[in-house]
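Subject: for your reference before the review

Hello V.,

The reviewers asked for a structural picture of the protein, and I figured it would be easier to keep everything in one thread rather than splitting it across files. Below is the amino acid sequence we used in the manuscript, unchanged from the supplementary table.
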Amino acid sequence: MKKKIILRIGTGIIVLLLIIDIIGSFYFYHLAISRNEKDFLQENEDLEVSAEALDEMLDGNWRGWVRKQNFETWKMTSFDGLNLQGYYLPAKQETNKTVIFAHGYLGRGLDMGMFGQYYYEQLGYNMFTADLRGHGESEGDYIGFGWHDRIDYVDWINQVIEKQGKDAEIVLHGVSMGAATVLMASGEKLPENVKAIVADSPYTSVYDMFDYQMGRMFHLPAFPLLPSTSLVSKMRAGYGLQEASAVKQVKKAEVPILYIHGNADTFVPTRMSKELYEQTNSPKELITFDGAGHGEAFVTHKEDYIKNLNRFLETYLPQ
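And here is what came back from the structure prediction:
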């Protein structure tokens, strides 16, 4: 009789834990992946930026520059039927060189004007940027964290080539989630027109990123919540957290990649760029900037950032 009672109690505890895990996985999916307001990030100390970076991001003259430009609005239907939106700005003087940008988590395509102004005004590039699925004017009830976006970006690349012609030369430049997006795209069969990739503050995989954030923000272990969240994501968004891996993709990359990361980044740890660099089989470089937080280096170390960017671009997209 006592054994039966113990067995029932044990079974009840297991069922309770399973229910808690299921509820938790749906909650975490809604919190991080579903398209909605992300209030939990507002008090995140890891996203606090320096006063210099904050001024540039909020009030920099690039915002006025973006508003003055006559961007063409491009539309595209994704492989799974979403209506996506992009923005194209032809260079002042005709050129075959185009930069394609990918923005970060909860951002919009035109946020990349902070970088685009330099490419456009100083390097003379055409500029294209897009709202990733689940962001801005693009459809999608979930955030892809770069995985489905990688296929979208192959399609955007092909549209740019149609616009520019067969001699188009393209550089992909992404920040944070956008950096993961272009790295995930690097493992696909890209047109030879893609000459270089710049990945600023990328993560290794969606699973690794969530694992790190769960420990840092919520003081929770990855197991069992992340594997069950991955199942929810697979059911609702069509991808699992572990399959959404930039590491697996850069192992297949043939395009030269420049990795950039701030050594003071506590939102996406610098070690992730180092791991990606080590796993990349194509020509590669890794530049780190002391004292720079997440995605800050272009502001806080602009001269050195541009110097290294120019050197890299001149190597693979010579004038």
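For the response letter, the relevant points are probably these. The two ends are 85 Å apart (CA to CA). Residues 44 and 259 are 25 Å apart (CA to CA).

Happy to draft the paragraph if you're swamped.

O.
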